[in-house]
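Hi! If you just cloned this repository, the fastest way to understand the data is to look at a raw example. We've pasted two of them here, unedited. The first protein comes first, obviously.
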Amino acid sequence: MSKKEAYIEKLESQLKEWSARIDEFEAKADKAEADTKIKYQEEIEKLKQKREEADRKINELKEASEDAWEELKEGAENVLNEFRSTFDNIVSKFK
C-alpha cells in the first residue's frame, strides 16, 4: 500500500466515524422537543455540508497522481480539521 493509499484510508476511516456520530446526533434530535429539534436539525445540516466537503476532498486525493496528491493533502487536512471543529462545537452546545 502506497503512502497515498494509506493516507486516504485513514481519512475515509475518520469520515466514516464522524458519519456514524452524525447519525447518533440525528437520533438524539428525533427524540428532542420541537424547539430543540429544529436547532438540532439546523446544526446537523451544517455537519452534513462539512461531511460532503470532506468527501469531495478525499475524492480529489484519490484522483490525484502520486506526485500531485501531496499538494492536495494540506487542503484535505484543513477541511477535515474544520469538520472536526464544527462537530465538536455543535456537540458541546447540546450537552
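Ok, and the second one:
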Amino acid sequence: MNIKNKIKIKVNGKKLIFDHNTSVEKLTKKLKIPLNKVALELNKKIIDKKKLKKIKLKSNDKIEIVHFIGGG
C-alpha cells in the first residue's frame, strides 16, 4: 500500500484510510450507506446529497452519518 496516495479521515469517530481524491459518493458506496435513510455531515456541515460526486475528501476530514429511525 502506497501511503502517499492515501488520506486518513474519521467516519463517526472511527479512523479510516481511503485513496487520495475519493469523493463522498465513493465513500458512501464503499461503506454501503443507504443514502435515503441517512443525513451526512462533513466537518460539521450538512452535505447536499446532490453534490456527493463533486465533494472530494481531504486528509483529517470528519464525516458523521446519522441514520433516520421511525417510531411511534
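That's it. A detail worth noticing about the second one: The chain has one helix and five strands.
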